[in-house]
Structures are given as C-alpha cells and as structure tokens.
C-alpha cells in the first residue's frame, strides 16, 4: 500500500517535470522560429524570460488570492447568486453609461478595455475571464444549487446567475473576431459540463438525463446567441470563422505540405520565393518546422503534443475532481490548452479553426504559460489531497522512532515538562538515542488523553505517532487497537484537511 | 542500486542547504547556457537557408527596387517623423509638412491591433509604402513604390504582390 502510494506521488512529480520540459521545448521552438523566420531581433531568452515572469506572477497572484478561492463564498445560496447577478447587471449598466458618456472609458465597444489612463487589450483579459472568472462563478453557483438539493426554485435562480455571467462574457468580448467568440462558447460550455459532472451527477436528487439535457440546451443557447455576437458573417462558414482569404492560406499550406521532404528542407522549398514570402512573419510554427526539419520533425512534434495532452489529463487528477475545491478552474485551463493543441495542429493542415498552437506566437503564449502554471498548482493541490487520503498509513508505532520505554520525557519550548495543550505546540521528546523535535496535537476519547506527534526531521517526513498521557506520564497507548485508534486517526485527518479540498455538503433544510 | 544512490544523494542535499543552493544555481546556469547554445547551434545551420536569409536573397535577386531610388531617397526617409492619433498615423517631413495621412496600421488575422506598429502609407502620387514605428522613430520597411496594397493574409502582413513603379 505504502509502496503504491509512493509510486503515485513520484508519478505526479514526474508528470510535472515532463510537462515543464515539454513546455520549455515548445518555447524553444517558438524562439527558433522567430529568430529565423520573423523580421527584427529576437533574443535567445526573450520568450523564456517572459514565460518565467508569467509563471512567477501567476503563482504569486494565485497564492495571494487563494484565501478568496478557498474560503466559503459569500453567495452561499442561489438567491444570493441571483442578487449578485443583479448587482453585476447594474454595474454593467453604469459601465455602459460611462462608455456612452465619456471617451476615456470602454468595456464593450472596443477591442481594448479602457479604464481612463489604463488600456488592456481584450485578448489578454479573455483567458483570465474564460479560465478563472467564469469557472469560479459557475463553481459558486453550482455549489449553492447542490446545497439546496437542486430544487426547482434553486435551479431557477441558478439559471439566472449562469445566464448573467454568460451575458457578461458575450458583451465584453463581442468586438473580438468571430473565432474568439466561438472559442469562448466552447470553453464556457465545457466549464458548465464539468460543473454538472462535479456537482450534479453524483447527487441522488438529480436525474442524469436532465443534467445532460441542460448542457445540450446551454450549448444550443450559445449557438443561437452567436448571430447577436458576431458582426461579420460572410457568405460561408470559412469566411465567418477565418475572415481573410482562405484560398490564399490553403495554397500556401498545400505548397509546403506537397513539397516537404522527410528530413530537412527540400530543394523545392529552398528555391520557392512564394513559400519564403508565405512563411515570413507567419505564425504557423508547425509548417515552419515542416520547412526547416521536414516530416520527421513534424511527426516528433505531434507525438510531443500527444504526450502533452496525456500529461495535462494526469496533472488534472480527474479522480480528485469532485473533492478538489477549485478543480473547475484547472479543468477549464486544461480544456483550453487541449483545444489549442488539437485545433492548432488541425488548423496548420488546413482545417478551418484558426487558432494558434499553445506556447507559440508572441502575446498569446503568455496566457498559455499562465494556464499551464495554474494546472501545475492544481497538481500540487492534488498531491495534498492524495496525501490526505493516505494519512492513516503515515501513522507509525511510537517505539519505531523512540525505542521502547516505560514512559517518555517530553519538554515544551520553555523546557518544562509538557502537560497541557496551548496552540501549535512544539516539543522535544527524549527517545532511546536522541531527542526528537515534534509538533503536538491533543485528542480526548473515552475520557483518555492522546497526543499525535509529527516529527520535524527528514527521515520521518510526514510520519506521525501517538502517545497517551496517563497520570502525568507519557506512555505508549494501552489497548490501542480498535475503535479509539480509528477515532483518533479520523479526527486528526479531519483537523489536517487541506484548504483546497471541498467541505462536506451541508444541505439546506426544507 | 540506483534507488539507493538517489536516496543517498537526496539525503545529502537535504542535510546541506548551501549545497542545494549551489546545485540549483549550477543547474540554472547550465540550463540557460544549453538553451542559448542549442538555439545558436540550430541557427548556425540555418545561416543561408533560414526564411530571413532566403527572403533577403530573393529580394536581391528580384531587383524589385532599383538601388538608385533607395540612395536618392535614403536621406529623405531619415528626416521623416510620425505622429499617431488613435489608430491612424500621419508622417511629417523635416519642415513639419504632412507627407501623408491618415495612414493605416496593419491588422492581424484575428482582427486585433498589431503592436509591432507596422503601417501602410501612400505618397502624394498614390504610391504605397510600408513603415514601422520603433522606439527611435520610424523605419521605412519598403519605400512608396508600390501601385497596389499588400494582400492581408494570416499572421502579420507581408508584400504578397508587388508591381514595379516603372
């Protein structure tokens, strides 16, 4: 059991390392393509530095906001969620008034969000909204609906709140190109489907068919709303989704695909002025690679993308999805990167879904790094959850560390005999060979007093043991096996539950 | 055996904080050096057949723009300066006279503003050129010798079809 647990832990770390290495490889490719196919000077570490900064600040911001994410939301009922929607609706009306009345404020009409002297391009805000803000709100709404056992009234208020947050996204990102709006529709629908899987499908009060029907209805509603969002419909689907001259694009793709060699650059491509012009400054890194390295390197890249998708799923920890508090955010980030990977590859070969490969391009790669950093943080939280569920195996007999003695001398931090609990007590226990520094947690059961000690040295990392306090002496627990042991373990686990785990559902009384 | 060695190494590292710090610094230094070296090595193999090098060769071979035009107008281009109003551009000569305006910025395939600040302009005779706004003023990428604008395709703009002035 312990062995399998260790293997699982190592696998998570290995997946994280593999994921990071893959991302670094993709950033390397992006740098190489920019240096060789783009005009201007591109430093060897320019994209790497940007990626590291983006990862660092994502970590810092997540860490500073984690209290907000982990604490119980203020909107803990569907009625409060609906009130929240009403308030945000009023604020958005005020924003509209400001936009109509002044030149220094814009939320809806431009491709930048203008707040007086600050101007943020919406393409930067898009990912933050789609993979953090929308899932966070959906999480709050579904948590409230589950608490109310998905009653008709709570579903009604929940739907209002979901519709409200959906409209918010549609209104803010409306001026962007059609592909962004289609992408937003896909991501939002995926988030809703994941939320239903997480909160509704496991509940006995919910009929599975109805839950699935809700996802389908939502997707249909989003498709139906597309005409209100997209300005340029064009004559056919390709004009709608791409906007430019599709035949020109396809002719370039066909030219490169048809004349690429298996290894290296083919002579035809080396001498084709059309191909040189077509590839210059063009954000088609798969085709750039086809030009430089031939089919062999493209096949390797596609295999690496497959590995990347597998690693994303593993890091996501679907098994812990229902127990993980912010799992929806991480899952939506993983969906976003997966969509970009799959459709980015297909688009490179002429499938009309114009989306850039992840970690390629200039500004978009910052957002991809941000999403990947979130997934890594989620994987770290998954490890904590995994460790929590195996905490009972971390308990070892006290004599294993301290040696067998009739009683043990324990001193508090002032070197007085340790006799009562204060707060987060740190103590020194004198064992057979040496003193062990530990943290102590007290538990009472059946009129008896026990203490769980967590040692502070590497050999006993995350291990813990129990001593009993009897007649002012610390001894090995007597008659320890059985219900008392189980109770102490459970209570200790309950007290040491990670913040990132979902709380027990407290259903609202009828 | 390998596991034992790994365990021993990690134990030694865990017990010596400064050793861990030194190892991390060395790993970062080696990593950065490897990164730069690999890009340099890959780029060296591409000295003559990178897209940039090939484009340059194509440009010279095609002789689209005669050297005379470039020499005659080089000084004049250096004296140009640019003013930006919203997303429109105006270029003025040394005397402050508007040479052209309003010009257009190039938009990318997603309809977003291109922050590389490449713009298209036309002179008084209607011939079209391309420039770029940099930190130190403007650079004329292609002089105003084209009779037709470039075709906007996916990604950044480029001159797809050029017609000679003469």
Major sheet of chain A: 6 strands, antiparallel
Radius of gyration of chain B over all CA atoms, rounded? 26 Å
The coarse overall form of chain B would be elongated
The number of helices of chain A is 16
Mean pLDDT of chain A: 86
| Main β-sheet, spatial strand arrangement of chain A | 4-5-6-7-8-9
Structure description:
The complex is a heterodimer of chains A (510) and B (166). Chain A is an alpha+beta fold and 510 residues long. Chain A has 16 helices and 9 strands. Chain A has helices at 2-37, 46-70, 78-101, 122-147, 152-173, 178-200, 208-229, 237-242, 246-259, 267-271, 273-279, 285-316, 327-348, 364-389, 398-402, 483-495; strands spanning 105-106, 112-115, 118-121, 409-411, 425-430, 435-445, 448-455, 465-470, 473-475. Chain A has a 6-stranded antiparallel beta sheet with strand order 4-5-6-7-8-9. Chain A has a 3-stranded antiparallel beta sheet with strand order 1-2-3. The mean pLDDT of chain A is 86. Chain B has 166 residues and is of the alpha+beta class. Chain B is elongated. The chains are: A alpha+beta (510), B alpha+beta (166). At the A-B interface, α1, α9, α11 and α12 of A face α1, α2 and α3 of B.
Highlighted features:
heterodimer; A: 510 residues; alpha+beta; 6-stranded antiparallel sheet; 3-stranded antiparallel sheet; 9 strands; 60% helix; B: 166 residues; 4 helices; 40% helix; elongated; disordered C terminus
Quick structural summary:
With 510 residues, chain A is of the alpha+beta class. Chain A contains 16 helices and 9 strands.
Architecture blueprint of SSEs:
The complex is a heterodimer of chains A (510) and B (166).
Chain A: H1 2-37, H2 46-70, H3 78-101, E1 105-106, E2 112-115, E3 118-121, H4 122-147, H5 152-173, H6 178-200, H7 208-229, H8 237-242, H9 246-259, H10 267-271, H11 273-279, H12 285-316, H13 327-348, H14 364-389, H15 398-402, E4 409-411, E5 425-430, E6 435-445, E7 448-455, E8 465-470, E9 473-475, H16 483-495
Antiparallel strand pairs in A: 1-2, 2-3, 4-5, 5-6, 6-7, 7-8, 8-9
Chain B: H1 2-15, H2 17-44, H3 51-62, H4 67-78, E1 81-85, E2 88-92, E3 98-105, E4 118-122, E5 128-134, E6 137-146
Antiparallel strand pairs in B: 1-2, 2-3, 3-4, 4-5, 5-6
